[in-house]
Amino acid sequence: GITRHYTFDIKLKNVTRLCQTKSILTVNGKFPGPRIVAREGDTVLVKVANHVKNNVTLHWHGVRQLRSGWADGPAYITQCPIQTGQTYVYNFTITGQRGTLFWHAHISWLRATLYGPIVILPKRGVPYPFPSPNEEVPIIFGEWWKADTETIINQALQNGGAPNISDAFTINGLPGPLYNCSAKDTFKLKVKPGKTYLLRLINAALNDELFFSIANHTLTVVSADAVYVKPFKTDTVLITPGQTTSVLLKAKPHFPNATFLMSARPYATGPGAVDNSTTAAILEYHQPSSISNPKRNIKLALLKPTLPKLNDTSFAASFSKKLRSLANAKFPANVPKKVDRRLFFTVGLGLNPCPQNQTCQGPNNTKRAASINNVSFVQPNTALLQAHFSGQSKGVYTTDFPANPLVKFNYTGTPPSDIFVNSGTKVVVLPFNTSVELVMQDTSIIGAESHPLHLHGFNFFVLGQGFGNYNSSTDPSKFNLVDPVERNTVGVPSGGWVAIRFLADNPGVWFMHCHLEVHTSWGLKMAWIVMDGKGRRQKLPPPPSDLPKC
Ligand code: C2O
Q1: pLDDT value at position 298?
Q2: CATH topology classification for 1-126
Q3: How many angstroms is it from 205 CA to the middle of ligand 1?
Q4: The dihedral formed by the CA atoms of 208, 312, 138 and 22, expressed in degrees to the nearest 10
């Protein structure tokens, strides 16, 4: 591979959406941010220079970061933030991945405006395992607030209330014609009849899983989280925050100058407030003039797609089950056959007592919280990876993250009366090359809800999912060990469970969290420490000299 150099200047820029202008954090003054393009095997160097008041870190979501954990980016997990006036060079090599990923800020809620696509092309001369597209187009979903990002996060954290819901969803940064005063802020994709387009869908929204569909067109899913899948056709794609899905769109052979809407709106089952509005972009046909037929050249009415209803969990479940690895000779599914470590995590909401002399917005004057196995993760003041590498874990983290829930109950039934969470900076330590099987169970505390869980540093295989409580004696027999989808973010089904398996072959400290930003803020997160192996290529190298200090 070659080395590709990027310079990312973090700076403010005035941006107008929904008829209001605000100053937002951007990379190089662009919103959404610039696209990173690399081939499998390339090394990417991104020099990030912070010209704003906020502390910043960037994360290359889904990039495996094999032995390059210092470049992963979650604040206080793998690095201290890049402070005003500082620079840091993220240096990583893309190994064994091709498809679509994205980058985003990984501190506070700054990813609201700091995000952009990562396009990983196959090695030179290597074709796609599907018909070669005529054109490739990133479609990145986001969320827009009229208020500034700080105001939103304070609402969620200080008083323990649900945060303000966003004012619009966006496609490539634009709300689209269904929002007030946004007709001119509409992304337009011009297609030619008969041609094939690879749409690289990315959900960079903060708090909403999304359904996406294009009126009168069928999509063929070919890749998820930068791993090829067995192609399948669908009218609608479900995509959670943190997931990427590449789809082929075949433009119809003969069309007059017609316009279709492609639109996205939430899938949500939880009790939280949800913006159920619809973002839309325009798909416009361009008839080459040689075959244009004036009689057929009529502008059709804007055609809108039909999307599943807000809480359509059965669509979500059946869509997820269609995703399968190619599992062929060229692209085998290397599912770990043996399991060294079995873990069971409950994921869900909970409550914290309201601090004295404060008024909180949660039920009965409590603060909303979220936890894994009843532990709400407390962000340390220094980076876990630095503490681990230098052998100075004391006072930073403890290694007693529970392997099972601290409070056992019927997870999909009535919750216990005491739903307060424990707090701590607890990690699970794994020897190098441990094969982990992890079942994640949604709890009904405060409400059954789908949680998109994202694991840094690894891809995992999704072996199975189901509704109700996971049954460890009957459910494993139904696991798919043949062609399970391999990815980095999976929705734990609302009122159900999902089972994943991964090989801990990447030494370092790896964050795992719900990719709904509000749940991450409330503590639905934890970290894994993967120890060094014996060989030289099984060890984490020392930190780069420009790694920021806390
Ligand atoms: Cu896309 Cu830890 O994040």
Answers
A1: 43
A2: Immunoglobulin-like (2.60.40)
A3: 12
A4: -30
Ligand 1 atom closest to Cα of residue 242: 1
Closest CA to ligand 1's atom 3: 61
Q: What is the value of ipTM here, to two decimals?
A: 0.99
- Structurally, at CATH architecture level, domain 341-538 sits in Sandwich (2.60)
Is 426's pLDDT higher than 80? yes
- Is 162:224 a contact under the CB 8 Å cutoff? no
Nearest to 106 by CA among 75, 152, 65: 75
Instruction: Give the 3-state secondary structure of 167-196.
Output: CEEEECCECCCCCCCCCCCCCEEEECCCCE
Ligand 1 midpoint to CA 204 (Å): 10
Collapsed DSSP state (helix, strand, coil) of residue 137 = strand
Burial code (b: 16+ CB inside 10 Å, e: under 16) for 63-102 equals bbbbbbbbbbbbbbbbbbbbeeebbbbbbbbbeebbbbbb
Write out pLDDT tens, residues 213-233.
Answer: 999 999 999 999 999 999 999
| Rounded distance from Cα 74 to ligand 1 centre (Å) | 7
The answer to whether 502 and 459 have CB atoms below 8 angstroms apart is yes
Tokens matching residue 36: 């990173």
Q: Which atom of ligand 1 is nearest to the CA of 520?
A: 2
Distance, CA 72 to ligand 1 centroid (Å)?
Answer: 9
| Amino acid, single-letter form, for residue 424 | G
**What is the whole-number distance in angstroms between the Cα of residue 65 and the centre of ligand 1?**
13
Taking only the tens place, the pLDDT of each residue in 323-366 is 999 999 999 999 999 999 999 999 999 999 888 888 888 888 89
With a Cβ cut-off of 6 Å, ligand 1 is lined by 59, 61, 74, 104, 106, 242, 454, 456, 511, 513, 515
Q: How far is the CA of 307 from the centre of ligand 1 (A)?
A: 27
Show the beta-strand stretches assigned E in 235-340: 236-239, 244-250, 259-267, 279-285
pLDDT at 212: 98
Classified as helix, coil or strand, 250 is: strand
Instruction: Give the position, in ligand 1's atom list, of the atom nearest the Cα of 61.
Output: 1
Whole-number Å distance between alpha carbons of 192 and 285: 6
Tokens of 62: 């889904």
DSSP secondary structure of 386-427: HHHHTT--TTT-BS---SS-SS-S-TTSPPPS--BPEEE-BE
| Domains of the chain, residue spans | 1-126, 130-325, 341-538
Atom of ligand 1 nearest to the CA of 102: 1
Distances (CA, A) of 26 to 13, 35, 304, 528: 7, 13, 32, 31
| Sheet of 489-492, strands arranged across | 427-430, 525-530, 508-514, 451-455, 489-492
End-to-end CA distance of the chain: give it in Å, rounded.
34
CATH dotted code for 130-325: 2.60.40.420
